Fold this sequence. Notes:
The complex is a heterodimer.
Chain A: H1 2-22, E1 27-33, H2 39-53, E2 58-64, H3 69-81, E3 86-90, H4 94-106, E4 111-114, E5 125-128, H5 131-145, E6 149-156, H6 162-174, E7 179-187, H7 192-205, E8 211-214, H8 217-229, E9 237-242, H9 248-253, E10 259-262, H10 267-278, E11 286-288, E12 292-295, E13 304-305
Parallel strand pairs in A: 1-2, 1-3, 3-4, 4-5, 5-11, 6-7, 6-8, 8-9, 9-10
Antiparallel strand pairs in A: 10-12, 12-13
Helix pairs in contact in A: 2-10, 3-4, 5-6, 7-8
Chain B: H1 2-8, H2 22-40, H3 50-75, H4 83-100, H5 105-128, H6 134-153, E1 161-163, E2 169-171, H7 176-181, E3 184-185, E4 190-191, H8 192-210, H9 212-222, H10 224-229, H11 234-260, H12 271-282, H13 293-312, H14 317-335
Antiparallel strand pairs in B: 1-2, 3-4
Helix pairs in contact in B: 2-13, 2-14, 3-8, 3-9, 3-11, 3-12, 3-13, 4-5, 4-6, 4-11, 5-6, 5-11, 8-9, 9-11, 12-13, 12-14, 13-14
Amino acid sequence: MKLPSxxxxxxxxxxxxxxxxxxxxxxxxxxxxxxxxxxxxxQMNADIRKAAAENPTLTVIFKDAQNDTLKQRxxxxxxxxxxxxxxxxxxxxxxxxxxxxxxxxxxxxxxxxLDRRVLGNEYTxxxxxxxxxxxxxxxxxxxxxLGDQGQVVELKxxxxxxxxxxxxxxxxEGIRGTGIEVIFEADMKWLEPNARKEMESALAVHKKxxxxxAHNDPGAHGAYLAAKAVGRDKEMLFVxxxxxxxxxxxxxxxxxxxxxxxxxxxxxxxxxxxxxxLGGKRVPKEVTLPSRVFTSENIDKGGEWLDIKAAGK
Amino acid sequence: MEELTILEIPxxxxxxxxxxxxxxxxxxxxxCFVFLLGLIFNSGGAFFEWGTHRDMLRQISVIGILACGMxxxxxxxxxxxxxxxxxxxxxxxxxxLTLHLAWPAIPAAGACLLAGLACGTASGALIARWRMQPFxxxxxxxxxxxxxxxxxxxxxxxxxxxxxxxxxxxxxxxPGFFLWLDQKVLGGNIAVVTLVFLxxxxxxxxxxxxxxxxxxxxxxxxxxxxxxxxGVPTGRIKLLxxxxxxxxxxxxxxxxxxxxxxxxxxxxxxxELSAIAVVVIGxxxxxxxxxxxxxxxxxxxxxxxxxKILSLNAVSEASRLILTGCIIVAAVxxxxxxx
Lengths: 313, 339
């Protein structure tokens, strides 16, 4: 009775040994994503998957923490225990994930931190875009587009989240000193149905609106639907952020939003850095991703790079 | 004795709230209270325009449709936590069928209705056949259907951008049905979605006050054992309640997808709580056996106006939550018989 299970075990061992002997050097990368409920993060994983597929030596294991900090912590620990060769993490929050990331780093696993930060410097490199600069660029673009004066509705992302705060404060800096006036602002919590509701209120209260600045593209689209429903969509422009191919870029192509500012996922850059690190090369500790703006004029040319680096750091 | 009382329940006049009694006045008083707030904080006269009310009626319709199904379930002394997830599943399903697979609207809507009915009936079967607590059974359905929504959508919003094998996107045309359902009729004075909500209210009203099965719903909620002993098919009645809640959620899901012009697998998250709040604010008791669909209509308007007034005045999110909590308590206290 015991023989079959032993044979099976032996066979497994042989297959495993053969596979590891004949196969070329394989790197296993653990990718800890904080929440796949957002299209932007789905895109990030897709970018990583696509970049990794071009390199046959890489295997990426994805884990989704479903917006749960403790679950993400467990995922990092699981990756460490599984002895992955490198860890990519897009953390939900800095403070609670700093310790597990530092622990992995100390055990000799290189860590690439994507989009949101961890505290301290016990990681290999950080890759992220700068929401504040993008907000600033949007503010400057809007001011130029409206000729330095106009009445703007701001539909904000969740204002308890840093991207929402930065996209707001950057925008305020961008329009500072111009005649642009924010006449209505509301927290739509990144959600399109909320944006549509808030925009309907704005339309009811204000008889003249020149532009809607939404902190994400679904927000801009929701605002557009609200304005269209009362026949006022031609009266104003809509501007959004993120510029995912199937969202913001599509809205630009359809002439719904005037401009969408890219918030790059950094997925491809993370895989590039991972390959360099695994190959024993050095990578910069901090990479700020460049960003593009998409408008109807430049969308077929792949957008236009924003002058973000020049803003200085 | 027990059998006698239960046999009396279907009679006209003995049901709680069947006469035009003071429970109506109490339900209306909560609405009036919120409406009064709107008159005071009218945001520069915006509250006095019909467009504001029309938009409010459209915005709250999806919650209202969910609340119709919730009312049926609550009358049987149950609760349905899965309505928001079933909404999400059907928003995705409808968008997938119409936008990506180019199905005509009617079969797609039919498929969604069947899917909603199936989800609801599954909860009902767990409760009626396997004697699970409604809270647990519908919690299971809630997470299961949310998972299903994410799985069939691949975790992404199902929009007009259809991914091609080479990674590029092609943009599907918006089917006429989307525009038809998300338009305003009667001289632009009322949204079609609102009419769908009102139709759901009428269906529930017919069931509850004109059909024997509706009276059985009350009987099951008031005293299940007595109802069973007097020959009420309690199992089938529960299947009916949860099945209809599922079907209404499917209708709400279609309305949501049409208004967003896409199917979002996250759509309807936490809507079940709003639906329960609407039912309770109307005056239907969570302990079952009583309640009316008219109360739910009033409750829907109360919550709808509350949200609209806070939004019109651009109240910040933090104050909004605090005020909503306070006003819900005030509205429920107003309706109590003895304060």
